[in-house]
Amino acid sequence: MEALFIFIAKSSALVALFYLAYYLLLRKETFFTSNRWFLLAGLITSVVLPFIVYTKIVWIDPVPVSNMSYSPASIVHAIEEESFEINWNLVYIAIYTIGFIAFLVKFGLDFYSLNAVLKGKKVQQQADFKFIDTNENIAPFSYFDYIVYNSSLYTASELESIIEHEKVHSDQHHTVDVLISRLFCVLFWFNPIIWFYKKAIIQNLEFIADNEAAKKLSDKKAYQYTLLKITTHETCVAITNHFYQSLIKKRIVMLNKNQSKKRNYWKYYAILPALVAFVVLFQIKTVAQEKKQIEAVAKEKEQSVEIYKIKKNTTDQELKELSEKLKANHDVDVVVSEVKRNSKNELTCIKVALKKGAGEAQTIQINGDEAIKDCGIAITTNDNGTKKIKLIADGQLDGLTDEEGPAQVRETRTVYQNGAYTTPPTPPTPPVFPAGAMPSPPTAMANMPKPPVPPANLNDKTAMKNYEREMDEFEKKMDAFEPQMAAYEKELNEVMSKREAIFEKEMEKYEVAMEQFNADMGKYDQQSNVDMKQHEIDMKQHEKDMRQHEKDMKQYERDMRQQERDMRLQQRAMIQQQKNMAKKQH
Known about the structure:
alpha+beta; five-stranded mixed beta sheet; 14% strand; three-stranded antiparallel beta sheet
């Protein structure tokens, strides 16, 4: 309920903001079409902007429950006041609903009146317009592509002016603007600004139609006389664009006004700082969260870490002792396999798999021709006794001793988790075709002969004979030059073949690396899916806990109300007891 009131208040404020900008800056300008879109944009903004809310989180200290105290007297007083309280929200909703229904009915009756005017009339189709010549004494009007008028009331020149005016309304779909403004009047009927806003929209539409119609008519003064002559009519259909408007003087003034200068377009942008201020003041939602959430995270990070390293010179016996120690101290099953060593008895290949209880198995495997870098197992023990086991890849423990604390391990333990990367693996870099100096072309290329130019007149026999003789000489020179070019091409092919061979080897390595990258990505995707499922489970449990918390809070409120009633009864009993004692003393 409160959200509805806030929305209505914000929308009304935005409508007022746009109307004031139009009234103070734009209503005297001749940018009629721009004014039309400005006014429509104001209505749309007033509906959309209140829904755009930016959230700002502010961390606060938790409020201890013990700080809240209630005196019996204040509780009794609050209960007594509450029992006589009027629910003003329901009162406001009832008033708004009554007004809304009333104006909605009026809107429907206007449609009924329009239908009564159009129904059964003879329609004359001309181009995109449907003309209806009625016998009723009503003001000429347009409704979408319908143009309705009573030709018996006007001369031929007056009727021409009226029809040109209404054609502009129909062509530019001004009926849509009228309907939108009427709908906003129904929704925000209580806001007086919206009625002025509707009047401004309709008035500006008349300015547009007057301006465009006057351009098409040969006699502009005759058009103005038509405006002055048509000043009273018995009937006007409310939801249409009708030719007669009460603000005839303003229409004539605007019709004769000089065009506004383009530099005045800055006035349209004057609304932007006001909208920014509105967003800053009313559309930024501040959410307070207690710092205990951060403290809980910090507390969770208070942990001890044990590191079990596997180095390149770790012996089989040491690997066996490591497995036994992990089993004894942490109940972790460790299986070491695929152990390979080089001539120096250094580890080059190893596979370590471990599992604790019903948890998921974790595996790390290192293969290569060179000695491995330090890797191992990190056991993190939290203050609450829970343990986390991490396999750490080769090279991630370099320079880290067994005694160093969790801060150093925290940087490395996120490399592998449950046999997969917890951060996406980096794809290999594709090889670049080898560069280098190219063979120098033959020096004779600078003296390469140029082909002769054919004569302009091919029918000139003398010129054609000279051209053929020059072509024979050119071919002889090219034949003499061909061996040098063949040698250059051979040298060039040899250089390129060597580089292609190098590039192919690099591509083979790249393909192997890509296969490993794809395998790592598969593990990463699999682990991500597992993490997402666990997150969904945690969120569902959180929702259950929140629902239970709400039930507990409701029960707490019921208990508090019962306690308040008991205290009130007790207070009354004490007062009655004091009265009885006073009577006995008398």
